[in-house]
Design goal:
By secondary structure, the chain is an alpha+beta fold. 34% of the residues lie in helices and 26% in strands.
């Protein structure tokens, strides 16, 4: 056992001894309930009205100064922290001795009078103190003086693995997740006001589809069949459009068995919505309005990314896929052969192999050369058909183009949208082409879902569809650079405990 482990065990044993002592005194250290009447910040912000009033508060002890006849402690509740003053003459000898058995990390309930100390700090002069939960494992020590924090709990790996401590010791982290909730609530209200219906579709699916990604695979014992965790909600939501629900959306978890980086987590939250009789132009306007609405609701219309100021209140730009790529390459990429495309990718440091198809190469070039340069909010429109198997052919008659956009802000993608393909014959052909790509080694090519095709054969109206990554949107609006900072419990590698 290491010195650190031995020391921790000694602390835990010491706290357990205190726990036993409380029980010997007839005190239940884990009562069933407690009813606070007030909260810390509400008391402090309304001090003129609260001064001299009797209040009941509850929270976790985060600092403790025990003295002979009087002690100070700071407790934290859902709103923040407030100081409590405990005097032996006020609470009685026995209660004061019991208070000495408490530690940082314990939960207490406090009844007392609101007052200001000689140093000018709003506090509660305690008359009754109740143990609500005894902590036996110590919290990391974080010191604060004159508004400056010392020995902060800042190791990112430990923060992600111990989110409960991260939330306790880093107030800005809690603020991020409060904003995340507000953003999702804002999105819901925006779509609800437009008469979209929120639904839930299967997470476990017999055939996965709706995106180019590898799935997580599981097995259903009772049915003795393989099932897949969904990579997208699309094919089920389109069934609802076919069934007559003309505006539909879902906010839920999707799962993709892919690599992890600052923008990707295997489990992530997506918004998908589908809108009958609309096209990708309508969806562009809606997406711009939705993002501005959510940003305004949390006060983030002007954001900073690596010292670059972005004003979300300005109109979003629109650029064609072909124009952006041709400008970067210095020639019209539509005139390039597949062999020349392979050579170009290798020149740009993009890995290709004999099974790499045209769509993958174009997508890789876009990701490598163009996406990082799209800092101001920009809709990239009119994509090649070869990388958009579920989008409608472009109305301009170009057989190689589809009506699709992706939204980029700060060099990252935030939304993907199509004028949805509703020709079942064309849809079958394209998914058959995807199946051929799978047979050629493209593990992310889509499956042919016969049930979905049969539903489309019943007739699907013109439809606009959109997918928005909620986690990335929260990153943008809360000024976080890693997806792990906006997911409460991100996927992590196994911890090396050796």
């Amino acid at each position: 056992m290491s010195i650190e482990q031995k020391s921790l065990k000694q602390i835990i044993d010491y706290r357990i001894d205190k726990l036993r002592e409380l029980r010997k005194k007839g005190i239940n250290p884990y009562p069933s309930e407690f009813k606070p009447t007030h909260f810390s910040e509400s008391i402090k912000s309304n001090y003129k009205k609260m001064e001299g009033k009797n209040v009941v508060v509850a929270g976790r002890i985060m600092s403790l100064r025990k003295m002979g006849k009087a002690s100070f402690s700071r407790i934290f509740d859902k709103e923040g922290g407030i100081q409590i003053f405990i005097k032996k003459d006020d609470v009685g000898y026995e209660s004061y001795e019991n208070f000495k058995l408490l530690d940082i990390g314990d939960f207490v309930g406090v009844q007392g009078i609101v007052f200001t100390t000689k140093t000018g700090e709003i506090s509660i002069k305690t008359s009754i103190i109740t143990v609500l939960a005894k902590s036996i494992r110590p919290l990391p020590i974080v010191k604060e003086k004159d508004g400056t924090i010392y020995d902060a709990f800042s190791d990112k790996e430990q923060r992600y693995r111990n989110r409960h401590l991260d939330l306790l010791l880093n107030p800005n982290v809690k603020n991020t997740f409060l904003k995340r909730t507000k953003i999702i609530r804002s999105i819901r209200s925006f779509l609800d006001d437009l008469q979209f219906l929120e639904v839930e579709t299967p997470v476990l699916q017999p055939i996965y589809g709706g995106a180019n990604a590898r799935p997580f695979i599981t097995h259903h014992n009772a049915l003795d069949r393989t099932l897949y965790m969904r990579i997208a909600d699309e094919l089920y939501l389109k069934r609802l459009i076919i069934g007559g629900i003309e505006k539909v959306y879902e906010i839920g978890k999707d799962f993709r068995n892919e690599g992890m980086d600052r923008n990707h987590n295997p489990e992530f939250t997506m918004l998908e919505f589908y809108w009958a009789y609309a096209d990708y132009e309508d969806c562009m306007n809606l997406v711009e309005g939705l993002i501005k609405h959510a940003a305004k609701d949390i006060g983030s219309l002007k954001i900073s990314l690596n010292d670059i100021k972005i004003d979300l209140n300005k109109p979003f730009k629109k650029r064609r896929f072909s124009e952006l790529l041709s400008e970067k390459l210095g020639f019209d990429f539509n005139d390039i052969s597949e062999n020349q495309l392979q050579v170009l990718c290798k020149e740009k440091g993009i890995e290709v192999n004999p099974n790499t198809n045209t769509g993958q190469m174009l997508d890789a070039l876009m990701g490598e050369l163009i996406e990082p340069t799209l800092i101001e909010p920009t809709f990239v429109i009119d994509y090649p058909k070869v990388i958009s198997p579920l989008a409608k052919m472009h109305r301009n008659g170009d057989p190689n183009l589809v009506e699709r956009f992706e939204l980029f802000i700060g060099g990252a993608e935030f939304a993907n949208s199509f004028s949805e393909l509703n020709d079942p014959i064309d849809q079958r052909k394209r998914l058959e082409e995807q199946a051929t790509l799978r047979q050629s080694g493209d593990e992310e090519a889509q499956n042919l879902d016969e049930n979905f095709i049969q539903a489309m054969e019943c007739g699907m109206p013109p439809t606009g569809g959109v997918g928005i990554g909620i986690d990335r949107l929260v990153m943008l609006l809360t000024n976080n650079r890693s997806i792990k900072d906006v997911i409460l419990f991100p996927t992590l590698r196994l911890e090396n405990n050796s």
